[in-house]
Amino acid sequence: MTANTNPQAPAWWTILRAAVIFASGLLIAVMIAPRFLSQPPDLPRQSSDPSVLSSLLAFEQGVGQRLQSRVAEAERRLSGFQCTIDQASPNTGPAPTVFAGRPDMSRLRAVADGAVVFIQAGEGSGTGFFVTPRHVATNAHVVGAEVDVLVYSETLFPTPVRGRVTARTVKRGEGLAERDYAIVEVEGAQGVQPLQFMNRVTELDPVVSVGFPGLFQSFQQTGLPRMIFRAGEFIDALPQADGREVFAHSAEVLQGNSGGPLINACGQVIGMNTFIIWANPSGEGASPKVKTDFALPSADLADYLASEGVTVTTAQTCEP
After folding, report:
1. Integer Cα distance of 154 and 260 in angstroms
2. Which of 10, 23, 73, 281 makes a 20 to 30 Å CA pair with 86?
């Protein structure tokens, strides 16, 4: 008789061993799960300077509080709201302009095609727009220290032309909301239709960001950059310590939109898209974060351009 070299273990032993393994796994899961559930991952910041981080955090929290306040106020106002529009009378002035639905994109594209351009400045790029037949406005951080840049427009310049940076603001500190402007002069441009400015905008007005965001260009495998439109609403004008304002809005801005126009339903410039902030309305470390897009107001841009001898056309009304 041949001996059995692999005897089968009793059934009770198999059950006991399985129970021990299961209990051990459950204990380990209970010990480590809270660490994964309670500690969100750290997110990188743009600077390691404590004073810069403290200033940025305070700005983020302030934006979050303002946004929460504005949302609550809008909800209060709209609760049970019924809209009636009276005819104009000598005592009340003209009836208000009412925006309904999405902006007329065919009209806005026709306006943008005659003015908005892609700017290549060394290794960097961004957006700009004609404010006169030969002057393009953009952000100083788009052109950097470059003097000569390339300017492209699918309708105006299918072949990129050269532009020369004739003026730019100098960054004074770490503030995101400080003036960030540059002027690019383009000689011999044909068919340009400079954008008009509009210095009046109210909460929840429809707005559109126009530009050449890099995210979309990275998925475009052939051809020159394409102009992208993103619709949203005007949120608020946020006052700054120096008396100026920055505009918060929801018409999405991505890297590459810098220097591009934020326009209203008439295609008039109400601001220049310049920066974004990811804020934690509930405090640092909270999740999820809220992204807000910011533009520098058209009135401030017009003042800067005038100081450099460039005069823009400012509209008084908007009739979509």
Report:
1. 15
2. 73
Collapsed DSSP state (helix, strand, coil) of residue 285: coil
* 216: Cβ contacts below 8 Å, ≥ 6 apart: 226, 228, 254, 256
Helix, coil or strand: residue 271: strand
For residues 195 and 54, what is the distance between their CA atoms, to the nearest angstrom?
Answer: 38
Q: Which residues contact 308 (CB under 8 A, 6 or more apart)?
A: 166, 167, 183
Question: H or E element: which one contains 303?
Answer: helix 298-307
Identify the three-state secondary structure at position 28.
helix
| pLDDT tens-digit series, residues 44-96 | 334 445 554 555 556 556 656 665 666 565 555 444 444 333 343 344 444 44
What are the φ and ψ backbone dihedral angles of 212, each rounded to 5 degrees?
-125, 70
| pTM for the whole structure | 0.68
**Residue 195 CB burial class (10 angstroms; 0-12, 13-18, ≥19):** buried
The backbone torsions φ and ψ at residue 51, rounded to the nearest 5 degrees and listed phi first, read -65, -35
Query: What DSSP state is assigned to residue 235?
Result: E
